[in-house]
UniProtKB/TrEMBL annotation:
Catalytic reactions of this protein: guanosine(46) in tRNA + S-adenosyl-L-methionine = N(7)-methylguanosine(46) in tRNA + S-adenosyl-L-homocysteine
Chain's gene name: trmB
Domain of life: Bacteria
Name the record gives this protein: tRNA (guanine-N(7)-)-methyltransferase
Residues bound to S-adenosyl-L-methionine: 59, 84, 111, 133
Family the UniProt entry places it in: Belongs to the class I-like SAM-binding methyltransferase superfamily. TrmB family.
Record-listed substrate binding positions: 137, 169, 207-210
PANTHER family, per database record: 3-DEOXY-D-MANNO-OCTULOSONIC-ACID TRANSFERASE/TRNA GUANINE-N 7 - -METHYLTRANSFERASE, PENTACOTRIPEPTIDE-REPEAT REGION OF PRORP DOMAIN-CONTAINING PROTEIN
Keywords: Methyltransferase, S-adenosyl-L-methionine, Transferase, tRNA processing
Pathway of action: tRNA modification; N(7)-methylguanine-tRNA biosynthesis
Length: 228
């Protein structure tokens, strides 16, 4: 497997203390929902889910979970794997999955690199990375998750012909992602007109990070790349 950056692609993992209920959910319910990377991945990822799912979607860094949970609710025949290292956001997602009985969601609360390396080759039908930490200072750009090594990880996990979707409101990170995907032989940008990257995908619910960007006068960009 490709080398990994020896450091963190994400910042702090803990914020405010969890409520007693969410503490209990994390202790009692998360183990049944979490990927167990200590065991080999099943050859068919559909076996991970309690629901009868037909395809697999991966979201790296699901943040507040708005997008992940919306997609899971509206696409019950798709199995969703959500990765989020921030404990508060993970606990929020666990609460929603348990309260709503979403059997087509599985979660992981640590580094997405480990998940990408664990997944079987050509096992994912769609992957999202939405409004990731832009690490805006140039000296921190090596912490950006989009790099040659991690694109190779995405490419290994995605089925040929399937899509990797990326959104950001930070122009330097949009340019960075376009450049890295353009230079990577496994991906091609699908945009044909300007509207293709200025318009969110069908069924887009928005996210809290997108709403914050809009309030602060920034505009989201929505990039779609095909695994060739």
């Amino acid at each position: 497997m490709t080398d990994r950056y020896e450091g963190s692609f994400f910042g702090r993992r803990k914020g405010k203390p969890l409520s007693p209920r969410r503490e209990a959910l994390m202790e009692n319910d998360l183990p049944a929902l979490a990927l167990d990377l200590g065991r080999p991945a099943p050859g068919d990822l559909r076996e991970l889910f309690g629901a009868d799912v037909h395809d697999i979607c991966l979201e790296v860094g699901f943040g507040g979970g708005e997008h992940l949970l919306h997609r899971a609710r509206t696409n019950p025949s798709t199995g969703f794997i959500g990765v989020e290292p921030f404990v508060g956001s993970l606990a929020k997602a666990v609460a929603a999955v348990v309260d709503e009985g979403l059997e087509n969601v599985r979660l992981y609360g640590d580094d997405a690199v480990d998940v990408l390396d664990w997944l079987p080759e050509a096992s994912v039908d769609l992957a999202y990375q939405l409004y990731p930490d832009p690490w805006p200072k140039k000296r921190h750009w090596k912490r950006r998750f989009i790099n040659e090594q991690n694109l190779t990880r995405y490419a290994r996990a995605l089925r040929p012909g399937c899509e990797f979707r990326f959104a950001s409101d930070i122009d330097t990170y949009v340019d960075w992602t376009l450049r890295h995907c353009r230079d990577h032989p496994a991906f091609e940008w699908t945009a044909e007109t300007a509207g293709d990257w200025k318009t969110p995908w069908d069924g887009w619910p928005g996210t809290r990070y997108e709403a914050k960007a809009i309030r602060e006068g920034r505009v989201g960009r929505y990039l779609t790349f095909r695994r060739v």
